[in-house]
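Quick note —
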Amino acid sequence: MLIRTAAVSLIASAAACSPSAEPEPETLFSALSALCGQAFEGEVVSTDPRDADFASQRLVMHVRECGEDELRVPFHVGENRSRTWVITRLEDGRVRLKHDHRHEDGSEDVLTQYGGTSAAPASGLSVDFPADAESRALFEREGIPDSMQNTWTMAIEDGEFVYALNRPNRQFEARFDLSDPVETPPAPWGSTD
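Predicted structure written out below.
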């Protein structure tokens, strides 16, 4: 009995001396997951004249579907509900972004499922997604070779969600205020519910 009591005391002492487990650092994926079900209004902050149409319309992102490893975030531009960002956490810690583009009848657009995967595990609140081989082939096939150099960025900074596109001679950036949720918009085109 004395030996057993001593062993229990020794185990308890060792546990008390061991360093406490550090909480997992917040990542872009976990931060977006925490916003599940909410929608946020944004605006175009870049100044490229090619974005005048987007800049003149109401922009809303909706963190609509949240799985353990996949988020679906519709991005509405005015009444256009054709765009959904699909963010997938991969087993190796990297994150993939795909753009799911649909027509109003739910059918896929010719330019759909393009995007890229982070070069390294996504451990922070900002992730770059360089165009992957599948996307580069799509852009070449569709006659838009400049897009083969696309890098998309998603980030959370200063209470805002940032979505950006960069390539030589082309920059687009929209920011969404995460401090002020708005009414959730209708389902994106192609949604089954």
